[in-house]
Structure to design on (259 residues):
């Protein structure tokens, strides 16, 4: 298969924490040489596309902000379309707050007046914030999660809790499942990926380290998929994988072998 577009996960695929995955720079250079369109798509909802571009530039990888999507950009797009005037209570990072405000959304700290509760990765999350989220969900509040990632790979090899952990904490205490969870592999994320590449999905490849988000996104889009074993997925997970990836790579360093 000759691919014309690649959707590339970042955490666990291109870098782990602050460390680049060995061979990532060369693999992305190989995409450029072949004129393959690139969309970097992260479920980390804390950074703007510009901040991702800066982070990649620090690793020696040149990517235009227009080639970057994230759970935050998908969430902002969704909220701007479905809840443009609703009061939004955010349990999430300051980086996500900035992006939602930049999208013209109406954020509030008054939980009693909330129409939408957004739950996301938040290092400052504590008992008091959980209590406010519980109260914000009283009544007819719409419950939105930015992305389902329960954990994020850290540079020291350990995992740390992600948005999914906080969404589950809120859902558990409120006895209410989210109305929608955005980010990969949601239908909103599929639309974002297909819309950004403007290619026939059958000519595209999704590369990522998570079966339940990256590979599920690719399968849902009708794109081919390649799992890399440099992040949260190990070889032992593969027999149970559903959907199963089309390609298995030790890391992004082997990407050229499937292009
Ligand atoms: Mg990843």
């Amino acid at each position: 298969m000759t691919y014309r577009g690649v959707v590339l996960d970042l955490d666990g695929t291109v870098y782990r924490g602050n460390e680049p995955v060995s061979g990532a720079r060369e693999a992305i250079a190989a995409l450029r040489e072949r004129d393959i369109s690139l969309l970097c798509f992260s479920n980390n909802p804390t950074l703007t596309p510009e901040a991702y571009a800066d982070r990649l530039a620090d690793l020696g990888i040149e990517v235009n902000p227009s080639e970057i999507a994230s759970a935050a950009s998908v969430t902002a797009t969704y909220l701007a379309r479905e809840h443009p005037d609703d009061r939004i209570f955010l349990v999430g990072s300051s980086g996500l707050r900035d992006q939602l405000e930049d999208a013209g959304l109406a954020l509030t700290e008054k939980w009693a007046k909330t129409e939408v509760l957004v739950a996301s990765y938040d290092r400052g999350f504590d008992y008091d914030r959980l209590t406010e989220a519980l109260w914000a969900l009283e009544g007819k509040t719409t419950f939105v999660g930015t992305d389902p990632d329960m954990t994020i790979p850290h540079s020291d090899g350990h995992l740390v809790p992600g948005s999914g952990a906080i969404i589950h904490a809120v859902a558990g205490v409120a006895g209410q499942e989210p109305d929608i969870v955005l980010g990969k592999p949601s239908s909103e994320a599929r639309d974002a990926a297909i819309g950004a590449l403007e290619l026939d999905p059958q000519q595209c490849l999704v590369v990522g380290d998570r079966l339940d988000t990256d590979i599920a996104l690719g399968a849902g889009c009708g794109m081919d998929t390649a799992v890399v074993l440099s992040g949260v997925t190990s070889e032992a997970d593969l027999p149970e994988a559903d959907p199963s990836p089309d390609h298995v790579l030790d890391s992004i360093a082997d990407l050229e072998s499937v292009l």
